[in-house]
Amino acid sequence: MKKLLIIALLGISFLGYSQKIIKTSENKNSGEISLEEKKRIAAEEKAKLPKPYDPKADAQKDINELIAKAQQENKNILIQAGGNWCIWCLRFNQFVQTTPELKEIVDNNYLYYHLNYSPDNKNEKVFAQYDNPGDKFGYPVFIILDKNGKLIHIQRSDVLEQDKGYSKEKVAEFFNNWIPAS
User: Which of 36, 39, 91, 149 would be a feasible disulfide site paired with 67, CB 3.0-4.6 Å?
Assistant: First the structure.
């Protein structure tokens, strides 16, 4: 009787163990990716994207120059705040630069600037002028100035996202809502 009980327990244990092995292999075959693999894929993507943020730039000087140019060209200023460390910041820049409809809206109506926020340069004084929107909304965050440098809108980026990128329709609507009056 004891032998039969031991054999039964071993059999049940074996079945339980084999189901764990099957479930683990099913997970790998069902398309689930480990966290390490996701990080590796994101790092590869980030490495391929252009890095538009310059931590060494004098952001206040650059924005002042953009205001003078915006007055001459009757354009608003689109400031994309973030950093080269931020995959969503890099994705947005790439999306705008490679989507002809969006690039045309930006080129015709805005002066586009990438305001760096990173450990190298947090641009605290510049961000303070706009009530530190990155602290509230994360990055990227968009700051729209009129041609005189007056803040007219702060835009969160999460409402523009779609899947692992951005919605062309939502981004176009955002851009079109803040073009300068003719």
Answer: 149
Taking the CA atoms of 44, 92, 162 and 167 in sequence, report the sign of the dihedral they define: negative
SS3 of 55-79: the string is CCCCHHHHHHHHHHHHHHHCCEEEE
CA proximity to 62, closest of 97, 113, 107:
113
- Coil, strand or helix at 151: strand
Distance CA 138, CA 124 (A): 15
| Helix (H) or strand (E) run with residue 165 in it | strand 165-166
How do residues 63-117 score in pLDDT, each as one tens digit?
999 999 999 999 999 999 999 999 999 999 999 999 999 999 999 999 999 999 9
Q: Which positions ≥6 away from 40 have C-beta within 8 Å?
A: none
Rounded to whole angstroms, how far apart are CA atoms 149 and 151?
6
